[in-house]
Design a protein that fits this description.
about 260 residues; alpha/beta; Rossmann fold; about 45% helix; about 15% strand; binds nicotinamide-adenine-dinucleotide
Length: about 260
């Protein structure tokens, strides 16, 4: 367990809490004393996250969950209202819910394109919009999940990269818009982190031209761990990130240097 206790007394909403980077980040923030309300569609995973996080909770730290899809407008409204009613305030919003499908552009249906935008970009927008008034009140902050695909483009990820490019632009726009009101807005841009998402992507790679993926993985084959991203999210969301806003921090083991 970490010795840092940067989140004691702080309330956090974190989407995508059931798996991978989201689960590792809930565990990290609760270990540092946060009260975290995890949101996801996967209730089994949410229960696992809450059990793991509460087992390693730091002073005052705890986790609970509210299930729902971030793509539904009512989810963000319900979650923010619930948290304000029960906790009285909101200090941090972390948007990590996301989906990835790798597909050749000419095979990408309108339905698939819209689905990725709805979850990755619209879901992030809705949670930001609903949480911002409460974050203004606490001079809180937001951390979003962009991707190396939003910075560099990735083959066969037209929908995913476009959605994450939108998250990049949304992050920088909100950082400007809320600068004077004291709300910081940053993002992480992970690449090659070993999670259920990347494992599932690996299985679909067989039918794609793998030679185009040369620059997307490290020559030594090493993947990052969800905890590597969780630590950076925690830094950005804590007072250690107090002078950072509008940043999109790349966490890819040096693949895109
Ligand atoms: N793993 C990587 O290498 C990588 C790279 C770049 C960006 N990211 C981003 O990091 C975030 C976390 O990814 P991960 O690798 O941990 O993936 P993951 O699949 O392990 O976790 C994603 C979580 O989002 C949840 N989710 C999906 N659709 C949802 C919806 N409509 N409403 C609520 N929750 C929903 C899933 O149930 C899951 O728990 C994502 O936004 C992803 O795009 C990951």
């Amino acid at each position: 367990m970490t010795a840092l206790q940067r989140f004691t007394g702080r309330t956090v909403i974190l989407t995508g809490a059931a798996s991978g980077i989201g689960q590792a980040t809930v565990v990290r923030l609760v270990a540092e004393g946060a009260t975290v309300i995890g949101v996801d569609t996967n209730e089994t995973g949410l229960c696992e996250t809450v059990t793991r996080a509460n087992a390693g909770a730091g002073a005052g730290g705890s986790a609970r969950y509210l299930s729902g899809s971030v793509a539904e407008e009512s989810t963000a409204q319900r979650v923010v209202a619930d948290v304000l009613a029960t906790e009285g305030k909101l200090d941090v919003l972390v948007n990590l819910a996301g989906i990835l499908r790798s597909e050749a552009t000419t095979s990408t249906t309108l339905e698939l394109f819209r689905q990725l935008l709805d979850v990755n970009l619209v879901g992030t927008f809705l949670f930001c919009r609903e949480a911002l008034p409460a974050l203004v009140a606490t001079r809180g902050n937001i951390v979003n999940a962009a991707s190396t695909s939003s910075l560099f483009g990735h083959p066969y990820m037209a929908a995913y990269a476009a959605s994450k490019g939108g998250v990049f632009a949304l992050t920088r726009t909100l950082a400007w818009e809320y600068l004077k009101q004291g709300v910081r807005v940053n993002a992480v841009a992970p690449g090659g982190i070993a999670t259920p998402m990347t494992a599932a992507q690996g299985e679909s790679m067989g039918r794609l031209d793998l030679s185009l993926f040369g620059h997307l993985s490290r020559p030594d084959g090493v993947f990052g761990k969800p905890e590597h991203v969780a630590g950076v999210v925690a830094m950005l969301a804590s007072d250690d990130g107090a002078h950072m806003t509008g940043e999109v921090v790349k966490i890819d083991g040096g693949v895109h240097n």
